[in-house]
Amino acid sequence: MTVQLSNLEHLPNYQITERLDVVYGSTVRSKHVGKDLFAGLKNIVGGELTAYTELLEESRQEAIDRMIVKAESLGADAVVGLRFSTSSIAQGASELFVYGTAVKAIPMPQQSSQNPPSDSHYQTGQSHHSGQHPSTQTPPSEPTDELPRFNPFG
After folding, report:
1. In whole angstroms, what is the distance from residue 85 CA to residue 60 CA?
2. Closest alpha carbon to 63 in 88, 97, 86
3. 3-state DSSP call for residue 30?
4. pTM
5. Most-buried pick from 14, 19, 42, 137 (CB within 10 A)?
6. Alpha-carbon distance 137 to 10, whole Å?
7. Which residues contact 87 (CB under 8 A, 6 or more apart)?
8. What are the pLDDT digits (tens) for 65-116?
9. Residue 23: which of 143, 89, 103, 133 has the closest Cα?
């Protein structure tokens, strides 16, 4: 089963049917002394600290994976309202925390595409001999983006 993730409080093209629980994942990582020394030198000349970028990417993925395991154990189809947080735990060690609301969701039926407006005179084969243009029809109303919303906080 694939758990979908959304930082929105809804899941586009899905209807949330049940709120399960808040789920989270975290990891605490420390810097490698050798990489820290190189980063200190890089700090003098400027530029991206790629060792730290890689460390953060690995931390994010590990925290997300742990959160997904918790969501799957609840039978969730998705996690909405996804957020990240970081904090310093000790000298050289940081926590990366991810959390959201596990939900059950079903796909919304796809709406059929609207046919372009057409003049009924042309459909029936009648012609205009008076030289007047056919009456202007009002264009079809734009489809609204009014999807059912689920508030995971209340």
Report:
1. 10
2. 97
3. strand
4. 0.62
5. 14
6. 36
7. 94, 95, 97
8. 999 999 999 999 999 999 999 888 777 778 889 999 999 999 998 866 555 5
9. 103
